[in-house]
Amino acid sequence: MRIFLTGATGFIGSRIVPQLLAAGHGVLGMTRSDAGAAWLAEAGAQAHRATLEDLESIRAGAANADAVIHTAFDHDFSNFVANCEKDRGVITALGSMLKGSSRPLLITSGTGLGQAGHGALATEDVVNFDHPNPRVASEQAGQALLDAGVNVSVVRLPQVHDTKRQGLISPFIDISREKGLVGYLGEGNNRWPAAHVDDVALLYRLAIERAEPGVRYNAVDEEGVRVRDIAEVVAAGLGLPVKSLSPEEAQAHFGWLGMFAGLDLSASSAITRERLGWTPKGPGLLDDLRHMDYAAALA
């Protein structure tokens, strides 16, 4: 297949590109920069210049593809709600070019959308449009396209990590460094699911090849890593104290990240593994955090 990949030079997208090429697919990779276009050419892919605000160019990329994988997202989390709404518009634009065909669109969401209620284990067969995560906008857009006959499926992401980036934990580290301490809410027993970025990239390839409408996949290796354990490993890496925070202290400490700090987001990938034969093999989240070069991350 010729696959249009948004976010092709991003953290996850740059790992998906070699996965697709090695499997014999052609890649039309969306990028904003000359450096990104050069990287894609060197990798063996074709570059497509566009930004998330340029919906006309995004539609043109989808029109010239047999399938679309959408991983691009504006990661300015200080404007998270607005950026989730921007993602709704991008997904709608991509899907508009696939109507009336069987060409698949694989979009990205978060594992929390599979939680039936607070603290419940998130599963692929649950769609909770009342979840407080603003990323609900992405799945609402996908569902609208699915209802209109577009072949849409979803990869739901946990904390995706290697030794350089770790999802929401990367800004967690930045905030800890700025504040001079590593905090967690209450007892810190709430959990965040995780998976290594290479395992996640493989899952995207398997999912687009299956191209099954309406299916949700949880890209989860570890169902839940306790936030207190994350904080303690980060504190050791930064050489900072670790402290339990009250709800009032946590809001002042975390800022925008406070909306996630106390959430228990454990998630299962049992259905995903059975459906796709996906078996994660990468290191765990805490292992990657222990091997992170915190001085290099600061630079």
Report on this structure:
- The chain is of the alpha/beta class and 299 residues long.
- Helices cover 42% and strands 19% of the residues.
- It has helices spanning 13-22, 34-43, 55-63, 80-96, 136-147, 169-179, 197-210, 227-238, 247-254, 258-261, 270-276, 285-290, 294-298; strands spanning 2-6, 26-31, 46-49, 67-70, 104-110, 151-157, 159-161, 182-185, 191-196, 216-218, 222-226, 242-245.
- Strands 3-2-1-4-5-6-10 form a seven-stranded parallel sheet, sandwiched between helices.
- It is globular and about 55 Å long.
Strand content: 15-25%
Series of H and E elements: EHEHEHEHEHEEHEEHEEHEHHHHH
Major beta sheet summary: 7 strands, parallel
Shape: globular
Based on secondary structure, the structural category is: alpha/beta
Spatial order of the strands in the main sheet? Answer: 3-2-1-4-5-6-10
The percent of residues in helical segments reads 40-55%
**What is the number of E strands?**
12
End-to-end Cα distance? 40 Å
- Tally of separate helices: 13
Low-confidence stretches: none
Mean pLDDT score, rounded? 95
**Cα-based radius of gyration, to the nearest Å:** 19 Å
